[in-house]
Design brief:
Distance between the termini: 28 Å
Helix content: 25-40%
Radius of gyration: 16 Å
Number of helices: 4
Protein name: precorrin-2 dehydrogenase
Number of strands: 8
Pfam family, one: NAD_binding_7
Oligomer: single chain
Structural class: alpha/beta
Largest sheet: 5 strands, parallel
CATH superfamily of the largest domain: NAD(P)-binding Rossmann-like Domain
Number of domains: 2
CATH architecture of the largest domain: 3-Layer(aba) Sandwich
GO molecular function: ferrochelatase activity; precorrin-2 dehydrogenase activity
Organism: Suipraeoptans intestinalis
Pathway: Porphyrin-containing compound metabolism; siroheme biosynthesis; sirohydrochlorin from precorrin-2: step 1/1
CATH topology of the largest domain: Rossmann fold
Strand order of the largest sheet: 3-2-1-4-5
Length: 156
């Protein structure tokens, strides 16, 4: 089967990113994104301890409420990571109408982009993906690549 996802590395430093939801999935996504940008807005009535900490440190902006359609204005990337499938699907629909790239945590078929497993050191960043088909294989590949990159690297 032809893989629908093409691996692209984006410069996120000037992109406005919105994350809807404050649970573990949102935390993992934000943790990855913080390695590359500090332009992250979280919209969620509640959040994990790490998300709360990053907001308190000023690393992310946290709007403590449910997402509204106007939150999408001016955003370049949106991550729908709420625990409500209907809410995530409405976010996807609204993003598509506005031409905003969107990822949703509950259904990969609705995603415009996926999050790769990352391995890196000071000079190299590697992203590994199975297109959402085999997470175990992705994790194993990341471990092997991280070993090649050396002990000074880290991984997510």
């Amino acid at each position: 089967m032809k893989q629908p996802y093409f691996p692209v590395f984006l410069d996120l430093s000037r992109k406005e990113i919105l994350v809807a939801g404050g649970g573990q999935v949102a935390e993992r996504r934000v943790r990855s994104l913080l390695l590359f940008t500090d332009r992250i807005c979280l919209v969620a009535p509640e959040a994990t301890k790490d998300l709360e900490k990053w907001a308190a440190e000023g690393r992310i902006v946290w709007k403590k409420r449910k997402i509204r359609a106007k939150d999408l204005e001016g955003k370049d990337l949106v991550l729908a990571a709420t625990d409500e499938a209907d809410c995530n699907e409405q976010i996807v629909k609204d993003c598509r109408e506005k031409g905003i790239l969107v990822n949703t945590s509950h259904k990969k078929e609705l995603c415009d982009f996926l999050f790769p497993a990352l391995a890196w050191n000071e000079k190299v960043v590697a992203g590994i993906s199975s297109g959402g088909e085999d997470c175990h294989a992705t994790v194993e590949a990341r471990k092997h690549i991280q070993k090649l990159l050396g002990k000074d690297g880290t991984s997510i």
